[in-house]
């Protein structure tokens, strides 16, 4: 029987994967051709989606991007020639063996090792591709040994703050309390990021496995995954995956034969960006407005419902199974400096080859944007890339040789954040992007601290005055005021929302003064 | 509003099921909005009573989160992504096209109740920008023509 693979990922579906699958089914029925269509996760090569794959002696062959109109000729190619099915290399959409596509071949996929290969809700697929090896190893270890492995691996929080994960684990494990929690921050609200979504939709058991290991190690028997409401597919997949994991004994009163209890629940956000901030997220799970808490107390000691809570991003928790399965030293051999392991970078915006690139830290932004991304989708000159979401800096091409490393980015007044890269061509006006950053902050600020609540609105007004005036002295004064305001927001805000809104604004002003009607000299003052 | 009282059985059913869940308020609001289409005023006092909260606390949560509506929705809700990635691929021009085609602002609802516009900041489709969500379905690699066709389909649906 002809076996084909096409993703069920929500973005593959948003560009027509379901229509292609339906067309294949209909056309195969018409031809009375036995056909097995497997809906897998996405490879993350989004410019090729919908990406159709078929088995061959050389591994899976890819075809894409496929439209329903291509279906008859593709089926001709799969069945017509005397050679193996899947050798219809002559088809105009043929890409050759998928794993030989340079974009994929040169990646170092640890977290996304199963992406595009397995069916998201198949436990058999998951186990056949290394799933639950980490949990099995963890069950045989003492919790302290698991915490030590996480510490030794050098894993840092992937949500943006890059705090050493092992230190959080140790703090929660050492805290004395009758009830502790593991909370997964899946409120992936940053524009340009989609790795959490891909992982939850495509490989939910990996996140579940990571959370179970965390729960067992720190002594928590309850975990929450807080997913933004904009990700309905992820919510549905996780709920289904919980039920499957419960039936298989991975969740419940005796997890994987450990004798310990652990269970999971999804909590759905409600469209508030600030709930991606960990303390606002905890407030939201508690049923309150997403208002940021002052720290200390740390969530590790007084988190959800006032109890010790391990809060991590999706990618941080999903990195744990491989660390436990293959060892801390295996993991820390990837990366550079204090940025160890791999990072799933996400290429978005005006980019020819948008998608997910998982590589060890240390490659340059240029390799990512120009090498993998292939430059702008519009073909126009590259103007800048915003790295790390709406609170990240706009980086000009002159700085693209900076290695993707937490410290190197911090040193140039930028941040890696969650690894999202939004590329812009020369038609995007950076003054309007600076204004947008402030407007976004004004709309999404929780309102607790003054620099963020008031500063964002005042900032919009300053940008408006700066752009409107033709008087150069006035323009210069407003630029000075804007930089001063950025400084106040950066150092005076309670959390990263106000604190880092300064990054896109200050970087736009610094690197693209012409968009504000300023010359370089003035902007540098 | 007397007809809102018709929703009380739904509200009571949700509360009976969920009120003892730790941190129950958001799941309860989502469930009510899912079943009724919005959060009726009549729900606020019922929720406050069931969860032992003040009316202000319940109102405060409803108004804090963008997702919660306190009026019935239009037949179709179109959420165009306005975040940076989609802006870099022409989302602002698409937003202008929508405003012009429907003669509405970014948060408007058409007079015939066919379509509501809402901005959204990121649908996770950034590798295939620009994107929108129409009645829960994401459409990516949007073009002006495709957007016009989607809106027309919503309007035609309203006419029948």
From TrEMBL, chain A:
Q: Does the keyword Iron apply?
A: yes
Q: What SMART domains does the record tag this protein with?
A: NADH_4Fe-4S
Which ranges carry the NADH-ubiquinone oxidoreductase 51kDa subunit iron-sulphur binding domain?
Answer: 431-476
Q: Which coenzyme or cofactor does it need?
A: FMN
Query: Keyword annotations for this protein?
Result: 4Fe-4S, Iron, Iron-sulfur, Metal-binding
* SUPFAM superfamilies assigned to the protein according to its UniProt record, in alphabetical order: Nqo1 FMN-binding domain-like (SSF142019), Nqo1 middle domain-like (SSF142984), Nqo1C-terminal domain-like (SSF140490), Thioredoxin-like (SSF52833)
Domain of life of the organism in this record?
Bacteria
- List, alphabetically, the InterPro entries matched: NADH-UbQ_OxRdtase_51kDa_CS, Nuo51_FMN-bd, Nuo51_FMN-bd_sf, Nuop51_4Fe4S-bd, Nuop51_4Fe4S-bd_sf, Thioredoxin-like_sf
Q: Its family?
A: Belongs to the complex I 51 kDa subunit family.
* PANTHER family assigned: NADH-QUINONE OXIDOREDUCTASE SUBUNIT F
* Protein known as: NADH-quinone oxidoreductase subunit F
Task: List the source organism.
Answer: Pseudomonas pudica
UniProtKB/TrEMBL annotation, chain B:
- What Pfam families is this protein classified in? 2Fe-2S_thioredx
Q: Which keywords has UniProt assigned to this entry?
A: 2Fe-2S, Iron, Iron-sulfur, Metal-binding
Q: Which domain of life is it from?
A: Bacteria
Q: Give the cofactors, semicolon-separated.
A: [2Fe-2S] cluster
CDD domains, sorted: TRX_Fd_NuoE_FDH_gamma
Keyword match Iron-sulfur = yes
Stored InterPro entries: NADP_DH_HndA-like (IPR028431), NuoE-like (IPR002023), NuoE_N (IPR041921), Thioredoxin-like_sf (IPR036249)
Q: Which Gene3D superfamilies match?
A: Glutaredoxin, NADH-quinone oxidoreductase subunit E
Extent of the signal sequence: none
Q: Which family does it belong to?
A: Belongs to the complex I 24 kDa subunit family.
Name under which the protein is recorded:
NADH-quinone oxidoreductase subunit E
